[in-house]
Design brief:
Helix 5 crosses helix 6. The model has no long low-confidence stretch (mean pLDDT about 95). A hairpin with a 4-residue loop joins strand 3 and strand 4. The protein has a six-stranded parallel sheet with strand order 5-6-7-8-9-10. It has 13 helices and ten strands. The protein has about 350 residues and is of the alpha/beta class. The chain has one domain: TIM Barrel (Alpha-Beta Barrel), CATH 3.20.20.
């Protein structure tokens, strides 16, 4: 895992802005230590999470009219799978590249970052394998998550797409942090996600391990709701990104898994600033008081508050794509202010 600045602020992904260069400039202004590339979801369906991740994965079709990603009946399955694994084994990243028309904020950040020599780390993101396979449908309308062969291919393809992002950051001389976004895990244990904990762990582990084979990248998983947190705390990830504003109390119940996570060197990315209606009723002071209380509650045997803060990042609770541009800018400013307060607190301990 690459060294990260403790209590630095970063983002999750989606933003409500429509000017990619302006969005990247705003990110760099407010979150200069670990800037993320803004997902410009208001520019159209290709910029949305699942569509954005589909290029290079075997036998899929992005339908702009119906706004869906599904198995393409016109592409022979075995040929598509064989091509994917040939590209993976050859180490060819080109088929897994993001394109400007589907990730304009990524390229805007790449253009802007070289002028900021102080930046050490860049953060990227991508649909997680469980969420992607859960949302993409097969020819019978069922999620490909229940097709073991296709899901394995998704793991390998998404890993290559993550490596492609990381390679672009490495080319700029920056360390790479990549988050896999897994909102689908909020349905774990329900009829919406009827697969076992072992299956989820295997899918995540395959993907994360495949990324790590290509170089020193820091890997996180973001889940924006409640889930069985032991799934993620026991997975081989470096950073658990969670909505601490809404779901801190549920995470705190997993004390033994948290102890194991911290013992392995794990970090938490605290989703401190709400990205829904609650934002209107909050200030920097109220959010700061909330964070202080939560961090102190999370202290466990062998892990003092100071150590927890030393392995923490600050983020919005989730993506900002559904906020107004003004509200999203306020979220970025709040994060910058909270990061400064947290740094001063850490220095005093």
């Amino acid at each position: 895992m690459s060294p990260l600045p403790p209590l630095a602020a970063t983002g999750i992904g989606s933003v409500p802005f429509t000017d990619p260069d302006g969005a990247a400039a705003s990110v760099l202004e407010h979150l200069p230590e670990v800037p993320f590339w803004p997902q410009m979801v208001r520019l159209g369906f290709p910029e949305e999470m699942v569509a954005q991740a589909a290029r290079g994965l075997p036998g899929l079709k992005v339908d702009l009219e119906s706004r869906t990603v599904a198995v393409d009946p016109d592409i022979p399955r075995e040929e598509a799978l064989a091509r994917l694994y040939e590209e993976v084994w050859a180490g060819d990243l080109a088929p897994f590249a993001l394109e400007p028309g589907e990730a304009s904020g990524f390229f805007a950040l790449l253009r802007a970052a070289p002028s900021k020599s102080a930046i050490q780390v860049l953060k990227g993101q991508l649909s997680g394998p469980v969420t992607f396979a859960g949302m993409v449908k097969d020819l019978e309308g069922k999620p490909i998550l229940f097709d073991h062969e296709l899901t394995q291919a998704v793991c390998q393809g998404l890993a290559r797409k993550a490596v492609w992002q990381a390679q672009k950051f490495w080319d700029l001389g920056k360390d790479a942090v990549i988050f896999f976004d897994e909102p689908y895990l909020t349905g774990f244990g329900s009829a919406y996600l009827p697969i076992s904990k072992r299956e989820v762990m295997d899918i995540l582990t395959q993907t994360l391990d495949a990324v790590r084979q290509s170089g020193p990248v820091t890997l996180g998983v973001h889940c924006c709701g409640n889930t069985d947190w032991s799934l993620l705390l026991e997975a081989p990830l470096d950073i658990l990104s969670f909505d601490s504003y809404g779901y801190f109390d549920s995470l705190r119940l997993y004390e033994k898994a948290l102890q194991g996570f911290f013992a392995r060197g794990g970090w938490l990315a605290w989703g401190l600033v709400p990205t829904g209606e609650d934002l209107q009723g909050e200030s920097a002071d109220s959010l700061w008081e909330r964070f202080q209380g939560q961090a102190q509650q999370l202290a466990v045997p062998g892990m003092a508050t100071k150590e927890i803060l030393s392995r923490s990042l600050l983020t919005p609770a989730c993506g900002m794509g559904y906020l107004s541009p003004e509200a999203a800018t306020r979220v970025l400013a709040l994060l910058a202010e909270l990061s400064g307060k947290a740094r001063r607190w850490l220095a005093s301990l």
